[in-house]
Amino acid sequence: MENGYDRFLSVVSEGRDLDKDYVNSVAQGHVWIGARAKELRLVDKLGTIDDAIVAAAKLAKLEKYDVVEMEEKRTPFEKILGNFSSKLMTMTGLGETAKLGRNSTLGKISAEAQHQLEFFEQFNDPNAAYARCLACE
Q1: Nearest to 27, CA basis, from 8, 46, 45, 44
Q2: Which among 102, 109, 118, 137 is least surrounded, fewest beta carbons within 10 Å?
Q3: What residue ranges do the domains of the chain occupy?
Q4: What confidence score (pLDDT) does residue 57 get?
Protein backbone atom coordinates (compact mmCIF):
# COMPACT_ATOMS: atom_id res chain seq x y z
CA MET A 1 0.00 0.00 0.00
CA GLU A 2 2.81 2.37 0.90
CA ASN A 3 4.55 1.60 -2.41
CA GLY A 4 1.35 2.44 -4.28
CA TYR A 5 0.96 5.72 -2.41
CA ASP A 6 4.61 6.61 -2.97
CA ARG A 7 4.19 5.86 -6.68
CA PHE A 8 1.10 8.11 -6.73
CA LEU A 9 3.08 10.95 -5.11
CA SER A 10 5.91 10.49 -7.62
CA VAL A 11 3.62 10.49 -10.65
CA VAL A 12 1.70 13.56 -9.48
CA SER A 13 4.81 15.51 -8.46
CA GLU A 14 6.55 14.75 -11.76
CA GLY A 15 3.47 15.29 -13.91
CA ARG A 16 2.53 18.56 -12.22
CA ASP A 17 6.15 19.70 -11.70
CA LEU A 18 5.61 19.96 -7.95
CA ASP A 19 7.77 19.00 -5.00
CA LYS A 20 6.91 15.51 -3.76
CA ASP A 21 6.67 16.74 -0.14
CA TYR A 22 4.20 19.40 -1.24
CA VAL A 23 2.05 16.81 -3.03
CA ASN A 24 2.14 14.64 0.08
CA SER A 25 1.07 17.60 2.23
CA VAL A 26 -2.04 18.27 0.12
CA ALA A 27 -2.89 14.65 -0.71
CA GLN A 28 -3.34 12.74 2.56
CA GLY A 29 -6.49 11.03 1.28
CA HIS A 30 -8.24 14.31 0.47
CA VAL A 31 -10.28 14.83 -2.66
CA TRP A 32 -10.02 18.43 -3.81
CA ILE A 33 -12.60 19.82 -6.19
CA GLY A 34 -12.94 22.80 -8.45
CA ALA A 35 -11.29 26.08 -7.60
CA ARG A 36 -9.52 24.64 -4.54
CA ALA A 37 -7.78 21.98 -6.67
CA LYS A 38 -6.68 24.73 -9.03
CA GLU A 39 -5.36 26.84 -6.13
CA LEU A 40 -3.34 23.82 -4.99
CA ARG A 41 -1.97 23.42 -8.55
CA LEU A 42 -3.47 19.95 -8.88
CA VAL A 43 -5.37 20.89 -12.06
CA ASP A 44 -4.62 23.31 -14.89
CA LYS A 45 -8.12 24.57 -15.50
CA LEU A 46 -11.74 23.86 -14.73
CA GLY A 47 -14.27 22.62 -17.23
CA THR A 48 -16.92 20.11 -18.14
CA ILE A 49 -16.50 16.53 -19.26
CA ASP A 50 -16.95 17.78 -22.83
CA ASP A 51 -14.05 20.22 -22.32
CA ALA A 52 -11.91 17.30 -21.08
CA ILE A 53 -12.84 15.17 -24.11
CA VAL A 54 -11.91 17.96 -26.53
CA ALA A 55 -8.61 18.55 -24.70
CA ALA A 56 -7.80 14.80 -24.75
CA ALA A 57 -8.55 14.64 -28.48
CA LYS A 58 -6.23 17.61 -29.10
CA LEU A 59 -3.45 16.00 -27.04
CA ALA A 60 -3.90 12.79 -29.04
CA LYS A 61 -3.91 14.87 -32.27
CA LEU A 62 -7.29 13.48 -33.30
CA GLU A 63 -9.40 15.43 -35.75
CA LYS A 64 -12.21 12.88 -35.78
CA TYR A 65 -13.29 10.83 -32.79
CA ASP A 66 -16.37 9.24 -31.27
CA VAL A 67 -17.46 9.45 -27.67
CA VAL A 68 -19.04 6.32 -26.26
CA GLU A 69 -20.63 6.50 -22.84
CA MET A 70 -20.58 3.25 -20.94
CA GLU A 71 -22.56 2.75 -17.79
CA GLU A 72 -22.75 -0.51 -15.93
CA LYS A 73 -26.31 -1.39 -14.96
CA ARG A 74 -26.46 -2.21 -11.28
CA THR A 75 -29.25 -3.28 -8.99
CA PRO A 76 -30.03 -1.20 -5.89
CA PHE A 77 -28.19 -3.83 -3.84
CA GLU A 78 -25.09 -3.48 -6.00
CA LYS A 79 -25.19 0.31 -5.81
CA ILE A 80 -25.17 0.24 -2.03
CA LEU A 81 -23.23 -2.86 -1.19
CA GLY A 82 -21.12 -3.43 -4.29
CA ASN A 83 -20.00 -7.00 -4.83
CA PHE A 84 -21.46 -8.07 -1.49
CA SER A 85 -24.97 -7.84 -2.97
CA SER A 86 -24.12 -10.19 -5.83
CA LYS A 87 -22.75 -12.70 -3.35
CA LEU A 88 -25.86 -12.30 -1.18
CA MET A 89 -28.18 -12.85 -4.13
CA THR A 90 -26.18 -15.93 -5.18
CA MET A 91 -26.21 -17.33 -1.64
CA THR A 92 -29.99 -16.83 -1.39
CA GLY A 93 -30.54 -18.41 -4.78
CA LEU A 94 -32.06 -15.31 -6.32
CA GLY A 95 -29.45 -14.59 -8.99
CA GLU A 96 -29.26 -11.26 -10.77
CA THR A 97 -32.22 -11.81 -13.07
CA ALA A 98 -34.68 -13.01 -10.46
CA LYS A 99 -37.58 -10.70 -9.72
CA LEU A 100 -38.04 -9.92 -6.06
CA GLY A 101 -41.59 -10.04 -4.77
CA ARG A 102 -42.63 -6.73 -3.23
CA ASN A 103 -43.72 -8.45 -0.03
CA SER A 104 -40.64 -10.64 0.35
CA THR A 105 -37.99 -9.56 2.82
CA LEU A 106 -35.40 -9.05 0.08
CA GLY A 107 -37.99 -7.25 -2.05
CA LYS A 108 -38.63 -4.80 0.79
CA ILE A 109 -34.91 -4.30 1.34
CA SER A 110 -34.42 -3.73 -2.38
CA ALA A 111 -37.26 -1.19 -2.51
CA GLU A 112 -35.89 0.68 0.52
CA ALA A 113 -32.40 0.66 -0.96
CA GLN A 114 -33.76 2.15 -4.19
CA HIS A 115 -35.66 4.79 -2.21
CA GLN A 116 -32.50 5.77 -0.29
CA LEU A 117 -30.45 5.95 -3.50
CA GLU A 118 -32.99 8.26 -5.10
CA PHE A 119 -32.94 10.43 -1.98
CA PHE A 120 -29.15 10.77 -1.97
CA GLU A 121 -28.89 11.33 -5.73
CA GLN A 122 -30.67 14.68 -5.34
CA PHE A 123 -27.75 16.14 -3.37
CA ASN A 124 -25.35 18.18 -5.48
CA ASP A 125 -23.43 20.46 -3.12
CA PRO A 126 -19.80 20.51 -4.35
CA ASN A 127 -18.59 20.76 -0.74
CA ALA A 128 -20.72 17.76 0.29
CA ALA A 129 -22.09 19.74 3.24
CA TYR A 130 -25.57 18.57 4.15
CA ALA A 131 -27.88 18.43 7.13
CA ARG A 132 -30.85 16.13 7.45
CA CYS A 133 -33.70 16.65 9.91
CA LEU A 134 -34.85 13.21 10.97
CA ALA A 135 -37.79 14.68 12.88
CA CYS A 136 -39.12 16.32 9.68
CA GLU A 137 -39.55 13.09 7.72
Answers
A1: 8
A2: 137
A3: 2-59, 76-136
A4: 95
